[in-house]
């Protein structure tokens, strides 16, 4: 995305009648286009102040390209970070590795620890993607989130998009297999809460809010007709 397209996108976004606007930077890896990300934050913040809108920014990043300069800028501009942590080292590295085959886990954890020196922990969240390899490690995945100090885990099934689609036979699973895994994780999370450590499964919280309250969650994935 170039600067001209970014400006037009922000202009369209701010025409929404909503009082509060959230802009998420997604990719690929959005920080590979950091100058455009920075421009959007600066421009949207200025325009939102003029129009009287509340605006929030979320950088969805795998953290591997993040620098101290970026972190300081995000801290100064109240930008939230959403990253990916698929579990313990061997699970994460199976799912997320570099082109040369080297795992990304150590780099992600180093960047996560560094990010927490700039940004409050409650402004840094993580979610995980479930592959066939993940299915045998439900407890281990939750334990890794607890070990890293998270109070929330978002358990996601595979979406049949992008690079995941041609690898379905290698990393995919049936709906019943995922449901069994999901139930195992929920039961383990409930047990952890009963023992005194608060951790939620975020997707369950979203579903319960939709079912049990009249309030919207704003979770657009549930509004996507192709899901």
Describe this structure in words.
The protein is an alpha/beta fold and 227 residues long. It has a domain at 87-103 and 110-223. Helices cover 44% and strands 14% of the residues. It contains nine helices and six strands, in the order αβαβαβααβαβααβα. It has helices at 3-13, 34-51, 68-76, 89-95, 105-115, 138-147, 168-171, 175-194, 202-212; strands at 20-25, 54-60, 79-84, 124-129, 152-156, 200-201. Strands 1-2-3-4-5-6 form a six-stranded parallel beta sheet. Helix 1 runs parallel beside helix 2 (34-51). The two termini are 26 Å apart.
Strand order of the largest sheet: 1-2-3-4-5-6
What share of residues are in beta strands? 5-15%
Ranges where pLDDT stays below 50 over 5 or more residues in a row are: none
Total number of strands: 6
Quick structural overview:
This protein has a domain at 87-103 and 110-223. The protein contains nine helices and six strands.
Secondary-structure map with pairings?
Blueprint: H1 3-13, E1 20-25, H2 34-51, E2 54-60, H3 68-76, E3 79-84, H4 89-95, H5 105-115, E4 124-129, H6 138-147, E5 152-156, H7 168-171, H8 175-194, E6 200-201, H9 202-212
Helix pairs in contact: 1-2
Descriptive keywords:
227 residues, 9 helices, alpha/beta
């Amino acid at each position: 995305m170039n600067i001209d397209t970014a400006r037009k996108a922000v202009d369209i976004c701010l025409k929404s009648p909503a009082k509060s606007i959230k802009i998420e930077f997604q990719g690929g890896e959005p920080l590979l286009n950091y100058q455009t990300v920075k421009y959007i934050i600066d421009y949207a913040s200025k325009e939102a102040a003029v129009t009287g809108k509340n605006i929030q920014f979320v950088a969805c990043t795998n953290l591997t390209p993040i620098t101290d300069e970026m972190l300081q800028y995000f801290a100064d501009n109240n930008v939230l970070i959403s990253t990916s942590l698929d579990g313990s080292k061997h699970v994460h590295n199976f799912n997320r590795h570099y082109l040369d085959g080297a795992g990304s886990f150590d780099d992600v954890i180093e960047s996560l620890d560094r990010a927490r020196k700039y940004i409050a922990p409650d402004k840094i969240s993580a979610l995980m993607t479930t592959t066939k390899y993940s299915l045998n490690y439900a407890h281990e995945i939750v334990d890794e989130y607890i070990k890293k100090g998270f109070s929330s885990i978002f358990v996601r099934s595979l979406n049949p998009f992008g690079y995941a689609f041609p690898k379905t036979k290698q990393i995919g699973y049936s709906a019943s297999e995922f449901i069994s895994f999901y139930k195992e994780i929920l039961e383990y999370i409930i047990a952890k809460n009963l023992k005194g450590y608060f951790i939620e499964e975020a997707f369950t919280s979203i579903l319960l809010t939709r079912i049990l309250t009249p309030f919207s969650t704003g979770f657009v994935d549930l509004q996507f007709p192709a899901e």
